[in-house]
Amino acid sequence: MIQVLNVVSRLCAHARNGCTKFLDEAGHAEHELYCEWRSVRCMWCQWQGSINQLASHVTINHHGAILANTEGSINIPSRRNNIYFFEIDKVVFCLYVWHKPDYPLCLCLMCYPLSKKDMETVFSINIVNRGLHISQSIHPVSDAVKRDKVFSDPEKCIIVPNYIKEGKASFAYCITPGSIM
Q1: 133: exposed, middle or buried (Cβ count in 10 Å: 0-12, 13-18, 19+)
Q2: Taking every annotated instance into account, which residue ranges of this chain make up the domain SIAH-type (predicted)?
Q3: CA 63, CA 66: separation in Å to the nearest integer?
Q4: From the CB of residue 14, how many other CB atoms can be counted at a distance below 10 Å?
Q5: Cβ count within 10 A of residue 129
Q6: Cα torsion at 31, 33, 36, 40 (round to 10°)?
Q7: Which of 177, 149, 19 is nearest to 87 (CA)?
């Protein structure tokens, strides 16, 4: 009986949001983890919807959201936090820039992955200041990770010391999809 149940297809758990895929037991868990119809929450207003609606929601409802390209420069906020929003091949990334004047600058790239390879994306920064140079890279953190755990884990964020960020207004960055560090 169990063998019969393992080969019977069933509808994705995210069907209520619009997914129409029928899955066997073997492919079911991975599909639901990366399903483009899974529920996510907006980082600004706690709106909830499917992942494929998030980019549209942010651009329509949050005019202060900073839409960014895959490379360029990011301004260091003076007294607040910023969130930069990227959409690369339908995959949504959010770069959280946490900043207080007397603390190191912390950067974390969150990802709303649609496949395993999306988590292999690399976010890199390069800062040169008064003869000092910092160049670091990280992989994104999945949206499944609680945000309060991110900035306390050095493997999930880039920390820029005060002596490097002092006097700098911006720094160079690059996002490389599907790369391995």
Answers
A1: exposed
A2: 7-63
A3: 8
A4: 19
A5: 15
A6: 160
A7: 177
Domains of the chain: 2-37 (no CATH), 40-176 (2.60.210.10)
Record the pTM. 0.77
Give dist(CA 63, CA 169) in Å, integer: 22
60-81: per-residue pLDDT in tens? 887 667 778 888 888 877 666 7
Look-up of token digits 């820039």: 97
